[in-house]
Automatic annotation (TrEMBL):
Residue ranges occupied by any Cytochrome oxidase subunit II transmembrane region profile domain in the UniProt entry: 14-52
Membrane topology label: Multi-pass membrane protein
UniProt-listed Gene3D superfamilies: 1.10.287.90
GO BP, one annotated term: electron transport chain
Species the sequence originates in: Penicillium olsonii
Signal peptide: none
Places the protein is found: Membrane
Record lineage: Eukaryota, Fungi, Dikarya, Ascomycota, Pezizomycotina
Family matches, as PROSITE patterns: COX2_TM
SUPFAM superfamilies named among the record's database cross-references: Cytochrome c oxidase subunit II-like, transmembrane region (SSF81464)
Any one GO cellular component localisation term in the record: membrane
Name of this protein: Cytochrome oxidase subunit II transmembrane region profile domain-containing protein
Pfam families according to UniProt: COX2_TM
Domain of life per record: Eukaryota
Major localization class: membrane
């Protein structure tokens, strides 16, 4: 039980196949890139909704 719990905690930050989100960022630059991506996707969704 303890070993399984420990292994699960080690895999919390590992990338998953077909994952939908980014991994946790390890640097401020990656946090900025992720924030830029989120902003672009937000405005892209608004534009797509407006056009369709």
């Amino acid at each position: 039980m303890f070993l399984q719990n420990f292994i699960n905690k080690l895999q919390l930050d590992a990338p998953q196949p077909w994952g939908l989100f980014f991994q946790d960022s390890a640097s401020p630059q990656m946090e900025g890139i992720e924030e830029l991506h989120n902003n672009i996707m937000f405005y892209l969704a608004i534009i797509m909704f407006t056009v369709t």
